[in-house]
Amino acid sequence: MRRRRRALSIATALAALAAGVGAAVPAGAAPPSPQYVLMGDSYSAGNGAGTYDERTCWRSPDTYGAKVAAQDGAELTNVACSGGVVADITQPRALGAPFVRTATYEVNGTAALQQRKWLERAQADALCGTPAQPDWHYEQTITSSTPAGRSLTATVNCQLTAAAQVDAVTPRTDAVFLTIGGNDIGFSSIIDGVPVKIQDIAQINLGKELRSGAGTLNGQETVIGTTMMLVGENSRTVAKAVDSKLETIKTSLPEGVILEAVYDRTSLVDKTIDTVQKNLVEGALLVIVVLFVLLGNVRAALITAAVIPLAMLATISSMVKTDVSANLMSLGALDFGLIVDGAVIIVENCIRRLSESQKQNGATLPLKERLNVVYEATNEVIRPSLFGVLIITIVYIPLFTLTGVEGKMFHPMAATVIMALLAAMVFCFTVVPAAIAIFMRGKISEKESPIIKGAKAVYRPVLTGALRFRWLVVVAASALVVGSLWMGSKLGSEFIPQLNEGDILVQAIRIPGTGVEQAVEMQKTLEAKLMQYEQVQTVFGRTGTGEVATDPMPPNITDTFVILKPREQWPDPSMTKAELVETFEEDLFTLPGNNYEFTQPIQMRFNELISGVRADLGIKLFGDDLDTLFASASDILSVISTIEGADDARLEQVEGIPIFTVTPKPDQLARFGLDIADLQLWLNAATGGETAGMIFEGDRRFEIVVRYADDIRNELTQLESVPIVTPSGEHVPISELATLAFKEVPSQISRENGKRSIVVTANVRDRDIGTFVEEAQARINDEVDLPAGYWLDYGGTFEQLESASQRLTIVVPVTLFVILTMLVIAFGSIRDALIIFTGIPLALTGGVMSLWLRDMPLSISASVGFIALSGIAVLNGLVMLSFIKQRLLETGELVNSIVEGALIRLRPVLMTALVASLGFVPMALNTGIGAEVQRPLATVVIGGIISSTLLTLVVLPVLYRLVHSKGI
User: Fold this and answer.
1) Given a cut of 80, is residue 116 above it in pLDDT?
2) What is the rounded CA–CA span in Å between residue 611 and residue 806?
3) Which of 592, 500, 512, 501 is nearest to 554 (CA)?
């Protein structure tokens, strides 16, 4: 009661004092601003006064008096003190415990004199420091002094004291605001016992994590998930298992949630397999028809054709055992004509020998005699057949030397072909002879088909003339070979033909710094425009980086997948996919803020895996200075954009992106007892939030995140006012501890092998990548002056083409030497081996010319065709020259042996050539999905077999006569 009376009396006195003060205002002068004083004890400091600090007084700017002063335009003197009591209004208050200061002074007199000088007020003030507030001051008391030689060390206690609050009231004071309570009546203990709920100091709501990516479908935002396949698994099997699992998941989804697959590689795999199956079936039918027509015997044709299913069964079994899947690449080079080549040679010779034996005996042959005849007939051709099949097998071995991506692609192809050829060879030398001896009963007549008769009628005079003008034939053949070499040098080059996946990928590239929300809105507009096309079935996009960052991208880039309807549902089915892409380009470039790259889903990923760029060609510029890199890369882009065939040429985005920067003020941090780590901690909490706990809903867990509201986090001025609590409990705004600003910095800085780089990318259309890069290299060398220490590297599919080509240029010659060695072993003669070996360049002539006629570049697929072609050419030469040599040994007449031997071997040579070439005809003419990869291979083989057959029938006999004109 006494304290209350005292407080009331003080308040009354102060009110009276305030009423009586106030200076007179001279007439005509502008009235001065009102002068208000706010004083009181602990709770008079107002809301938000802060944590009590023994050495200071917290004073809130939000008290009632402060708001009134602001409304009246008055100057407010706030001397209220948190933690104070009523007595502090009229009496000075010691703020916390004294702190100690020491100093050493030179002694110029007696110690007592120095001690008195030490206690002078000016020295004490300088030692204790300047008060932080005008109503605070220091009181100093000396506690000890120690003389040492000619110096004196003194210790002073500095007591920070707040003046009596009533001293702030002056004659100019117009109003005084006074509140008391709190510590005097124990109100703080009451407040401490009141629970404070989170909702009293913060907004609580269900939110979402700060996302770095988004998914859209047909112009609407959605959630997109991606199934990741394990390394070594079969994509078709995995996709089917996922589809089955999705059907199960759909049954448990809540109402309104729709789950559907928007992109499935199974459809593409199935389409390519359908193309391969169609090619194989049509090729097998053509081979069987040729066998029926040229052999002139149904049973013989059936026995020969039986090798196809038997060899395929063995091949498929081997593929299963060796984990080689059936796909476009593994079955892409499989030709049933090659498989039955050995059987054709054996069956043709057996039929001829059985027919001759029946004529000699004048009756049909019993089984025992048929077995003997077949055995002898098989022995006649087993050596050339065996060596021929082995050579065809050997020529595929160089494909196993390919590494990297090209190795992954072509190893299965080589393995499948070798397994098929070896299986066919086994059946040719076991099943086929036995089947002929068993099933070729009754009268056997060697009927020549009209085609063979006509061919022999034409071939005899041609061969006779060639033997007469043999040097002219040699010169003409040499000219053809030289001409084909020149023609081959003019062909373009590419890694592999571009597979038509049936879908389109549009990569939308926006200004660096574009946020996720803005990118999503722009993507919705893009997808809505694409959905207007009748050819489009579905459009979905992946913007930025997903929750699981398997494919990290900035938020300004979106991969837009355009799934097309089947071609028969298009308004104009004759419209090509390239024409549709051109239409997309013209339409989409009307949308502001977007740039585009047009490619295909798998092609984009394939290019990215090869060299880190998603385009067909990536020109990487390496150097030190980023500005110099950007300037030189811009010059390169200008050159590339003008080259014929360049499309979607662009420079890697390195231009400035606005970012929020914080520059610490070390002196201020040290003053408040903070370091940079403390600043970073508070900034992270302010902008990104801090996890305060977890909420569990069944087996699901959700983080409880505490962070500032969006209007604070997204505004620079708001962030600057965010307070940081110092170790002493003081609240200091971030702006006093650091400088906050927006600044433009490079959007990305790429490095490769520790060196800075920038990439210029381009897609190549209607032109091969090889000649495009050659022209680009020449023009860049001429038109772009790179500074010293800067260099270029060309990546993309061109990089794989160079890698594969360099490896093949080493391995193929070695393989050819092995083939030559086998020919020498087979014939026991280097001269005969070289004669047969000439069939290889003669065959390559037709392959090159066929590529040139069909305007196809040289690719790895075409190179596989040349590899297969060289084996077929050697097989034909073996069949012909082995028989010519046998006839020459029997008769000793060179010219007659050459003519008769060539005529007798005409049918097997034509048959092997026809079945091998016709087996590839469906591949060469098919337009289905995946046919692009097989087409160059088939084109080379067909053209090469035609030239090889014609030249083998003419040039090889001529060379044999020239080499053996002086005898064997």
Assistant:
1) no
2) 18
3) 512
